[in-house]
Amino acid sequence: MLKKLKVINFIMSESKQRLDYKNKTVLAPMVRVGTLPMRLLALDYGADIVYSEELIDWKFLRSIRRVNDVLGTVDFVDPADGTVVFRTCPREKDRVVVQLGTCDPQRALKVAKMVENDVAAIDINMGCPKEFSLKGGMGAALLKDSDKACEILTTLIKNIKIPVTCKIRIFPDLDETIALVKKFANTGISAIGVHGRTIQERPQHPNRVEMIKEIAKSLDIPVIANGGSREIEKFKDIGKFREATGCNSVMIARAAQWNCSIFRKEGLLPIDDVIKAYLKYSVDYDNSPSNAKYCVQNILRELQETPRGKKFLECQTLEQICEIWDLGDYCHKKQIEYQKNGLQGRREVNPLSQAPESKRRKIEIVLPPDVTELQCAFIRRNFIEDTDLPKSKLLVYTTKNGLPKPKYETIQEDKLFRSIVTVNGKKYSSSFWEKNKKFAEQGAALVCACFLGLIDQNVLVANGSILR
Ligand code: FNR
Question: Is there a single domain that holds both residue 314 and residue 421?
Fold first, then answer.
């Protein structure tokens, strides 16, 4: 019976577009880290296969596929708010694996069908120990419901044309783990990622290298060893991990998150070079400032305490972050180019919601009741010509209508600014705190222009200025 199954599996995998998992170095799935810029950087540095961050099936299902001609990408966009759920591009098509968080075979299949022409493989996350996943029957919960896990895998394998894999954690007991991985392997998966820690264990616990080795010995499919970042400080250590686990493929998470050039055969690059290269991809692929900031923070780590690190932490826009690494002009020009070419603004996470508590409190200041407020960020790249700027528009409006010039008053709290503009006796302000006085005035003018009908509010929503 077992032999028969194996033959069937072989035939099924033969008929698929193949992604070879042998002798590969892999960028592991990492929430928020594994977005397009980091994946491309990993490929540049020598990774063979790159995993997306875990994408939750029902969130993915809300999205629609859009070819983005301006960026040369394929985007899966949530039409409700314009959020890019997943962005990919032809360069990674044969090497990117989409990792799904799921507990439902049919939902997983629907998502897989949506992306199967754009990616190389689908992976099912069976290792996430977070409460959100466990409560939803996803991630490591599937290790304890192996029938459901197998149903998800077989449903995908039968119905999609790209390979299917899964990524697991181990049980404390070797035999139990081997029984589980054999059951999964018999579904016809093309490879299995094994993180050598149990559901309860945290990154500081030792990775069970011997256990991964035994698992690899027991299976005919490629096993991708994972969990070794604590011991991986340079490229050579990847080889050591490969040897110690007896797996010919390895998957790296934290070591790549800290310095993605870990994949370079020629050796690690200084983190400033890595940050620069990462930011360049962030600009090229219109990554959100919040995502770029998070990834750079994870590269900088303790260097966030330095004066430059502190300056970086104050940044709200991609251009401001880029300025620190001498890419401000590059970012500015590229954003204007994209704007001219008709790039739709991506919806931003309000950067202040990620600011330290002390900064967030400032948003609660109370302005006089006669001030009309709207939360509206001034994003410079949304205005190509100087004459398009909100302040310019207000000036033209007041001149044309024989009104006094707009009057600006600015409040400063620590290093953040808000302005109130008075036009025709009425006051307007944006409740979004800006980095400088100039931007704060433009923000207030934007709100005023919006209420006077000089700028369309729908456009502000679409280009990310109005944060809902
Ligand atoms: C992870 N990990 C993870 N695993 C997974 O299957 N899907 C995911 O989305 C994530 N997200 C994630 C985010 C971040 C920031 C980290 C650090 C880790 C776990 C990861 O893929 C890997 O299994 C572990 O980090 C162990 O490998 P390393 O770090 O020792 O190479």
Answer: no
Q: Which of 89, 103, 128, 260 is catalytic?
A: 128
What residue's CA is closest to ligand 1, atom 8? 30
Ligand 1 center to residue 29 CA distance, Å?
Answer: 6
- 269: how many CB neighbours lie within 10 A of its CB? 16
Give the CATH number, domain containing residue 422: 3.30.160.20
Residue 357 sits in the same domain as residue 311: no
- Sequence-distant (6+) residues with CB within 8 A of 194 are 167, 168, 169, 170, 181, 212, 215, 216, 223, 224, 225, 226, 227, 247
Residue nearest to atom 14 of ligand 1 (CA): 30
* pLDDT at residue 345 in the model: 60
Across residues 234-251, what is the average pLDDT? 97
Condensed to tens digits (0 to 9), the pLDDT of residues 196-229 reads 999 999 999 999 999 999 999 999 999 999 999 9
- Which pLDDT band holds residue 408 (cuts at 50, 70, 90)? very high
Q: Are residues 238 and 326 in the same domain?
A: no
pLDDT digits (tens, 9 = 90+) for 363-395: 456 778 889 988 888 887 778 788 889 999 999
Amino acid, res. 182? K
Domain check: are 189 and 87 in the same one? Answer: yes
| CA 253 to ligand 1 centroid distance, Å | 5
Spatial distance between the Cα atoms of 109 and 88, rounded to a whole number of angstroms: 19
Q: Beta-carbon neighbour count of residue 57 at 10 Å?
A: 22
**238/432 Cα distance (integer angstroms):** 46
User: What domain range is 418 assigned to?
Assistant: 351-462
